[in-house]
Amino acid sequence: MEPLTEVDPVPVRVVFERRETGSPWQPVIWRPSAIEPAAADSPLAVRLTLDETEGYYLNLTTEHPSIFVLWRMPADDSGVIAEGDPTPPHALAVTASYNEAGRWMDGGERVDPVPMPEPMQSWVAEYTTLHYVPEKGRKRKGNRPSFMHRNEYEAMAERERAIHAPKPAGSAALGENPDRPGKADR
Predict the structure, then answer these.
(1) Residue 155 has what pLDDT?
(2) Which residues constitute the domain of residue 74?
């Protein structure tokens, strides 16, 4: 029997924590603090896809597996909250993949981790175990530029050795190219 590649998404709700800072410039900060189960019609859901199995693996092998939350403030994308503004931020997306969260952050988004609930860890771990196949590393033969074929590299290395090898008296000086005419030949 083939393992399922498509699994139903798990609807979630993000709980945000509001904290007073005591700073006149930013009196309040918000942070996602937890993930909770939500109704089936929730706009947020943790979805598992075959393309992200490496990201799930990387997440699960950390000391504290997380769900990553992409979020914004409702009126102000800077994250600065006016004093006394009780409006909580809103989550736009959630993921269990380190790689996807990294791409979001590379795009300049605000992404924070929250602890992954234990039942979700088991679910993600089972999916990852069934589908994650580590990429096999390519073996390279020797330290050579990747754009050259092996025989071209060896020929170039031999020419370099010939140029820099000690020469008997009367031959080209160290460091001179034997293929170029010397000063006496010009």
Answers:
(1) 84
(2) 10-131
